[in-house]
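Deviations from the work plan: none for this task. Representative record:
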Amino acid sequence: MSSNTDGKTGSVPHVNSEYKLIEQRATAANVFGQIIRYLLLAFWALIVLFPFYWMILTSFKSYSSYNSEYVPKLFVTSPTFQNYVDAFTEVSLGRYLLNTFVFTVVTTAIMLVIVVLSAFAFSRLEFKGKNILFALFLSLMMIPNELVIITNYVTITNMNLRNSMPGLVLPSVISVFYIYLLKENFEQIPDELYKAAKVDGTSDMRYLWRVMIPIAKPTLITITILKVIECWNSYVWPRLITDDPNFFLVSNGIQEIRENGFGRENIPAMMAAVVAISVPLMVLFLVFRKKIMAGVARGGTKG
Amino acid sequence: MNSKKQTLTAWLCLLPAIIFLGAFLVYPMIDVFIYSFEEGYNFASQSYFGIGGYNYSYVLHDPYFIQALKNTFIIVLITVPLSTGIALIISLALSSIDKLRELFQTIFFLPYVTNTLAVGLVFMILFQKTAYTDGMVNLLIRFFGGESVDFIDGPYSAKMFVMCFYTIWVVLPFKILILTSNLASVDPIYYKAAKIDATPKFRIFFKITLPMISPMVFYLVITGFIGAFKAYSDEVALFGTDLNAAGMNTIVGYIYDMLYGNSGGYPSYASAAAIILFAIVFTITIINLLVSEKTVYYQ
């Protein structure tokens, strides 16, 4: 381009390099921003991961080597399985795990049956007082668990169900939130399907079983996962109604070990117990990771 | 004929739910309410003196309750804004990178699937300073030139710090997840329009992104408040079951202490405290709802 005294055409080469400069600056700013972002995320990821790393690490350190470290080491010099052996033999950790497993499975199963039936009734069937009843159900969601636990404790004690699986399971079964979630999902199933099924002479129950449930599978998976996590982490209720170690669940079992068992001195064994407790859910998570995260997101946004 | 059959089926379907809800949700609610007004209830003899507000006045004057109240409020006021803010920042960062995003998301979600009591134990050990060792965290502090502090058995502010830190650590996964999926659902048309107008990033965030996700942010704030008021098991995870000794009891902890007490418990005091808690949470939620009328943008 020839340089001209004319303002317009003469400034083109300058504009070109100006553009380049602006673009360079923008890219630099972009890259800088990206680096900051990655650093931030990496920082938090470290904070999240470190306790887990430390937990696993310590569970493999021998008792003596752990206690001799004034400055805790970040690696293991001579790994040992002894802690795991201790954890399972000195307390009945296996028993706690089994109890929690049974508790989780039974509670989730019963919950699913109740929730599916109720959501079906509210979404598909017509009956008098339906709306009032549903509004009532919704209002029950406001009642905090801390309140009802007091009376449930008395009720279960009076029914002689302390230190028993039914005592643990029964009050933990129900949640209005899951009924609400599933009902919303059921309602999205188009009426035409129902009418078509009716024309074929399908009964309501068959329709529920063969059509509605398969379609609502993602939500059902969500509900199951959320309930499983809730059951595995359950602490207050088991703590309240069980004092027989044979019926401890994983959370109050850990509490027990920590206060009365070897938890006070034998930290590595304690960590082994913690790892053993965390592993089942973590494995579940890593395998079903996508489904779990999608499910929780769905459940969270609906709530 | 058809509608009668439907009605019958419906009620049959709902029967299990009604039974469970009635027995374990409705009945307790009424029962606790009544309990809280029965004075001097004695569990052993199942008798009481009279009806009145004695339980409430006892609870409200109990120094343990006041301490618990104070602790709970501090936890709520610190953790809810902080955790929501940090979750927002992290979600925004996550949304604007594409490599390694899935990896980060998986890592960040880890605390959600673990048992808070188990991991709380790990935190306790990391932060604790004993006669034998200073603990990992103190190591870091000393590395940066500070003085080591016992976070578990030491000064109140240190304990509060650990408590809030752990609480935020635990609640972040859920918030990050919700916010990232919400951010992803904002219609890109808005961003494109803003780009055409060469809007600076700052403005884009405050005028487009924030309003678009404000319903979800608001939801997280409300549920955050409600959840934080019920703080209890995280505390136990860090400080053990005798929270009063550590001066770190919470309202819920107080309720359970009253219930699980030595001589069969004091269900009346527990009930009064529980109703007070319910009233507090209810009021805060109403306030939140009123504030949201002014600040949340609904499409």
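The two ends of chain A are 64 Å apart (CA to CA).
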